[in-house]
Amino acid sequence: MAALNDWQERLEETALEPVRRTGRRFWAVVVTLVAIIGWGAYAYSVQLRDGLVVTGMRDRISWGLYIATFVFFIGISHAGTLISAILRVSNARWRTPVTRMAEFVTVVALICGASFVIIDLGRPDRLLNVFIYGRWQSPIIWDVLAITTYLTASVTYLFVPMIPDLALFRDRLADRSSRWRGWLYRTLAIGWHDRPAQRRSLGSAIGVLMILIIPIAVSVHTVVSWIFAMTMRVPWDSALFGAFFVAGAIFSGIAILIIVMAILRRAYHLEEYVTEKHFVYLGYLMAAFAAIMIYANISELLVHGYKLREGVEFHFRQLFLNEFAPLFWFYLLGGLVAPIVIALVPATRNVRGMVAAAILVTLAMWIERYFIVVTGLRVPLMPYEPASYAPTWVEWSLLAAGLAAFALLITVFTKIFPIIAVWEVAEDHEATAVDAGAAIPTGAIPAVDRPRLAEEGGR
Amino acid sequence: MFHDHPSDQRASADRTPGDSAAATPQASGSGFGRRGFLRVLGLGALSVVPLPLVSELIRGESGDAEAEPVHGQGAAARTRDGRIRQWTMIIDLRACDGCQSTGQPPRCTAACIEGHFAPEPMEWMQVFEADLAGGGTQFIPTPCQQCQNPPCVNVCPVAATFSTPEGTVLIDQERCIGCRICMAACPYDRRFFNWGNAPVPPEAFLADYSPEHQVPAKKGTVMKCDFCPDMARTGTLPYCVQGCPQNAIWYGDLEEDIATNGREIQSASRLLSESGAYRLKEDLGTEPRVHYIPGHGEAAGRDAFEPGRLPTEWPWMERAEGAVTWRR
Q1: B163-168 long-range contacts, CB within 8 A, separation 24+
Q2: Total domains, chain A
Q3: Which of A201, A232, A423 sits opposite B151 (nearest CB)?
Q4: Which of A109-118, A335-344, A416-425, B165-174 has the weakest average pLDDT?
Q5: What is the average per-residue pLDDT within B101-106?
Q6: 3-state DSSP helix/strand/coil percent for chain A, to nearest 5?
Q7: Which of A27, A202, A252, B32 sees the fewest Cβ atoms within 10 Å?
Q8: Within a domain: B6
Q9: Shortest Cα distance, chain B CAs vs residue A7, angstroms
Q10: Which CATH number covers residue B216?
């Protein structure tokens, strides 16, 4: 038991480390990110003053980089749901060290994504009209509904499994941290003292939440796709769109999670808990979703391309041969095929390979969102010359600011909240130790296929 | 902390008594944990009741928001026996030569721009040049199609664009939030956005704004052809009809079955049936109120193989102070 106690102590120390010590590098990162956000705020003030004329959007391509980024962010918000809810439901134990990070990503991405819709508005001063005059018939209202619901649900789903860890912070950091921290952890731990009844309540609360959040998450990105699919634009006129968007969302969500994991693992020395196994498993999942995306693309493109109805030929030419061809082929080959190859080849089946694949996927999926928006609008509706669209410095600045805000929020979160689900990791470690009937080497994570313990039910 | 506790007593014995008491003064027995979580869950579920419900609550006080009269919108025009007029437009492409014979840019577009102070580069009444199946071209003056199943009205989140009892589609620029989903939804490319401070002449600011006239233009909102119902009610034809030198554009009322091009009066239904009129993108099911009589300007003496029309001009540009323009 002494070994186990040591192990537990080390785990808690690792979890507490980011909160206890703040180095110069952290402040350098924060200052850089705040500077980028400040620049974005300046760009937005220019846009508020002069109107959307400072963007590259015009009547014929009336949505652009902002809406693409909105779709992208809502997409990566699916990281948390998938990793923690789906893997929790299927009781895949290897998930435990990464769930918390995934749930951070979800909440932060939702906040960033929603703000891009507001940035895109011509009259942000009339935002409240959405609540005063909202019509249920409009896909935009469905979106407001779905995103606010998902945000509430994912904040709850981030919070509830964190309660025991907040209690740990409350106890371990008592009198050793600033007053507001003490107050924060005391309040958020809502009187957790690890009693059996509390544990039972927590178990059933998590059980309810993880089931609830899956349909909510699926509905969110389906509804986002309906903003496009409910119009009569040829490239968007597809019943597959909802499923296609959800698959793409989970796909890009896994990629972002791998990148965030790699950064936090290095920054906070989590190598013992976030191991190569996690990267490889997530890489497998990503490859599986790449396969689903390939399937969805073939299905979508073949059904449209075979008949070649009005506008489809133009759309296919711009994607495969003309203006957008280089990046579209990158999306298909670099974003969808390459991750599968990287996961299959043993030589690249490691942290570095998976992170490289994740970066490819992230780039490709942002490009895909951009192309869905821009190429869809570019197909001419009447006899006129096809329009062109290129984002301006204002749009690029706001994209940079959005990504910086995403990074900053995650950075700040890691300094306040436990980035590792300490109690879940400990529980798994114990369960594994019991399973093996002896102490096992530190850092080993139980295999997925290990039989589920009866007492684990509901968690 | 969660490792290996043989019993609950051991777990609580691990903790310092002071800490425990300070954190949970009200904790008595194991019931607290459960209640605490139920409260958290309940609050979470409550806030899942989403924000858009707020609008329902607000509306509960003041009745149906969509039924509120829009500022400046007139009462629907009626026939003598009280039936609401159903405005329609019939464009005779046989008589439209794209104003090639006048040596000027299309006059319907020009008249519309002058009447509505439509900012550059908006051509609410735009003359497209389309290829004919056997070669050559035809000119298609295209106003808002005034759909009876309007995709733009369906998607608007705030009912800023709406169908009127007269069968037209209007935009309330005082409510529009500028999300532009209506522009994505319109299959006829008939919606225009005020990307910046639109160029309008000073006198435009004297006008009392109305969704039926849309003067002056408002930054960050969508505009389009309004079908001039305010003019029709006073017995005036829309600007484009007045401006057409070939009298190719007919305006009328399907309810009373009457249409005029400013020179003659005809039965609208007879004109439509006898000329084999069609509507744009009929297969979409949008049910437009704008009809076309097929042709390529032959009645105006145009040769179908002579393409091209002069570009539209905005006459007051030098008087529109501090304004910016943008390309379409």
Answers
A1: B164/B73, B164/B76, B164/B229, B165/B76, B165/B84, B166/B76, B166/B77, B166/B84, B166/B85, B166/B86, B166/B87, B166/B229, B167/B86, B167/B87, B167/B88, B167/B254, B167/B289, B168/B87, B168/B226, B168/B227, B168/B229, B168/B289
A2: 1
A3: A232
A4: A416-425
A5: 94
A6: 75, 0, 25
A7: A27
A8: no
A9: 10
A10: 3.30.70.20
Q: Is B191 part of the contact surface with chain A (CB cutoff 8 Å)?
A: yes
Q: Is B311 on the interface with A (CB under 8 A)?
A: no
The verdict on residue A426 lying in a domain is no
State whether B177 and A190 contact (CB < 8 Å). Answer: no
- Residue A123 has its nearest CB partner, among B20, B178, B195, at B178
CA distance A11 to chain B (A): 11
Nearest to A210 by CA among A161, A169, A174: A161
Among candidates B39, B40, B34, which has minimal Cα distance to A160?
Answer: B40
Which positions in chain B touch A52 (Cβ < 8 Å)?
178, 193, 195-196, 220
Residue A149's pLDDT band (cuts 50, 70, 90): very high
Task: Check pLDDT > 80 for residue A175.
Answer: no
Q: Which of B223, B230, B264 minimizes the C-alpha distance to B247?
A: B264
Residue B225 region by backbone torsions, left for phi larger than 0, else alpha for psi between -120 and 50, else beta: beta
Report pLDDT digits (tens) over A264-310: 999 888 888 888 999 999 999 999 999 999 999 999 999 999 999 88
Contacts of B5 in chain A (CB under 8 A): 194
pLDDT higher at B12 or A23: A23
Residue B97 in any domain: the answer is yes
Distance between CA B71 and CA B66 in Å, rounded? Answer: 13
The stretch A68-78 carries a mean pLDDT of 94
pLDDT above 70 as % of chain A: 94
Q: Do A4 and B176 touch (CB under 8 A)?
A: no
| DSSP helix/strand/coil, A458 | coil
> Which residue's structure tokens are 């969808």?
A336
Chain B residues touching residue A190 (CB < 8 angstroms): 36, 40
pLDDT the model gives residue A258: 94
CATH number for position A264? 1.20.1630.10
Report how many domains make up chain B.
Answer: 1
Element (H, E) at A131: helix A129-132
Supply the pLDDT for residue B72. Answer: 80
Mutate to test the interface with A, among B9, B12, B39, B48 (most CBs of A within 10 A): B48
Question: Which residues from B are below 8 Å from A380, CB to CB?
Answer: 189
Among B194, B217, B192, residue whose Cα is nearest residue B204: B217
The pTM of the full predicted model, rounded to 2 decimals, is: 0.88
- Average pLDDT over chain A, rounded to whole? 89
Q: Which domain holds residue A23?
A: 2-124+134-419
What domain range is B282 assigned to? 87-319
Two structure tokens written together for A449? 């296929």
Strand order from edge to edge, sheet including B265-266? B265-266, B258-260, B249-253, B87-92, B290-293
Kindly state whether residue A178 falls inside one of the protein's structural domains.
Answer: yes
d(CA B161, CA B211): 9
A322 is a domain residue: yes
Find residues 255-284 of chain B whose CB sits inside 8 Å of chain A.
284
Q: Do B23 and A191 touch (CB under 8 A)?
A: yes
Interatomic CA distance for residues A423 and B3, integer angstroms: 9
C-alpha neighbours within 13 Å on the C-beta side of residue B113: 22
Per-residue pLDDT at B27: 39
Instruction: Say if A454 falls within a structural domain.
Output: no
In the three-class reduction of DSSP (H, G, I as helix; E, B as strand; rest coil), residue A250 is classed as helix
Residue B208 lies in a domain: yes
- In-domain check, residue B233: yes
Residue B17 pLDDT: 41
